[in-house]
Design the sequence.
């Protein structure tokens, strides 16, 4: 992806079902945390309904309804499918992490195995693709994340705590979209640890002296 | 039946038919839904790149999803066409053998709920846009913009990421959510 998508594009792309899996996971988790984003999302969904409604209908093959009725007979008299009940989260960590992210973690939120590096620790998520890196990151409250630029797209969804950078302040549920134009130095807000989900489609580039060397050694 | 597919149907009529299917497995009500939505679903799949035979089959699959899932329709949450659209989208994904896309769960206790009043900085809480409001907005868009939007929703690459698409999306959102929404 060369130019970064806008917030609207991400939401509408999710409505259209055209996002790659890691990005869809992040956007859906953003929607769970942000009522404001959900309202926008519902707008784009309603538009999808209208676009379907107003499409020029394609005539069906002769006998389509009869064929369909025969399929209904095969369905039998069984009642409509009901969604399976899903387990209710109980732990404190589980309540901080909404679906669908919670369902895609390698372990229960309170039992994750974090790899540590300086002020931050991280857990990688396996979403069945090597085109993106999807990582849950925890940065100690008040500490800095190294200044870096981007080889591609970086999506930052704040789950708890928050951070500040040159562009503003981001709290729980807020989504930041960084692209190759962006260079930033996030600083975690004091108080609570900053917990966030990151989706990257290219490695980050550390800025400053020895940036290239540090990029290779840096574990995030 | 053929004449029904040509015309438009009111939201109330479609929603009532879906409710009848959900509550009593009403086949007559479903015949109306089939007549309205199956040719539209077929056209949608054609636009997504399916050939005539595949689109015909996928339209059947989508209508089966409507039949099976009717109890999940909640007219307080979405209009009939919006809800059917989500099933058409799911059918398309299934045809491409994609896993279901990760989505949020409105019943998840960890979901951050809409505030009850206008006290938050996010602005006042508003109900989801109705299909008729969306209808009115789409009617005001120029034809080629509607076409561009539809192609985007159908999953086509052409036009994705273009400035015109961005403008059309922003216009949709502003008109439906109200400015600052």
Sequence:
């Amino acid at each position: 992806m060369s130019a970064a998508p806008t917030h609207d594009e991400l939401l509408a792309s999710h409505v259209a079902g055209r996002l790659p899996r890691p990005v869809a996971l992040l956007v859906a988790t953003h929607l769970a945390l942000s009522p404001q984003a959900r309202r926008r999302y519902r707008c784009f969904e309603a538009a999808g309904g209208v676009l379907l409604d107003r499409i020029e209908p394609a005539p069906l093959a002769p006998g389509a309804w009869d064929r369909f009725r025969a399929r209904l007979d095969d369905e039998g008299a069984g009642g409509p499918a009901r969604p399976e009940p899903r387990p209710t989260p109980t732990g404190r960590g589980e309540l901080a992490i909404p679906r669908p992210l919670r369902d895609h973690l390698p372990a229960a939120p309170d039992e994750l195995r974090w790899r540590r590096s300086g002020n931050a620790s991280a857990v990688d998520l396996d979403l069945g693709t090597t085109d993106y890196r999807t990582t849950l990151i925890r940065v100690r409250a008040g500490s800095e994340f190294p200044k870096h630029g981007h080889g591609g797209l970086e999506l930052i969804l704040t789950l708890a705590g928050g951070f500040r950078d040159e562009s503003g302040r981001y709290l729980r549920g807020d989504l930041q979209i960084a692209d190759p134009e962006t260079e930033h130095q996030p600083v975690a807000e004091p108080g609570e640890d900053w917990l966030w989900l990151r989706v990257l489609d290219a490695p980050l580039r550390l800025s400053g002296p020895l940036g290239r060397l540090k990029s290779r050694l840096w574990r995030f | 039946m053929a004449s029904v597919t040509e015309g438009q149907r009111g939201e109330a009529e479609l929603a009532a038919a879906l409710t009848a299917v959900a509550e009593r497995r009403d086949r007559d009500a479903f015949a109306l839904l089939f007549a309205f939505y199956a040719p539209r679903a077929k056209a949608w799949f054609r636009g997504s790149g399916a050939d005539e035979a595949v689109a015909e089959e996928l339209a059947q699959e989508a209508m089966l999803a409507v039949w099976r899932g009717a109890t999940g329709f909640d007219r307080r949450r979405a209009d009939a066409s919006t809800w059917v659209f989500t099933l058409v989208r799911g059918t398309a994904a299934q045809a491409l053998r994609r896993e279901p896309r990760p989505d949020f769960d409105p019943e998840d206790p960890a979901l951050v709920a809409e505030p009850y009043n206008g006290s938050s900085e996010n602005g006042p809480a508003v109900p989801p846009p109705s299909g008729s409001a969306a209808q009115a907005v789409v009617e005001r868009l120029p034809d080629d913009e509607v076409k561009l939007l539809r192609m985007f929703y159908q999953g086509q690459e052409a036009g994705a990421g273009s400035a015109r698409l961005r403008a059309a999306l922003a216009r949709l959102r502003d008109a439906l959510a109200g400015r600052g929404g």
In short: Residues 27-47 of chain B form the longest helix (21 residues).
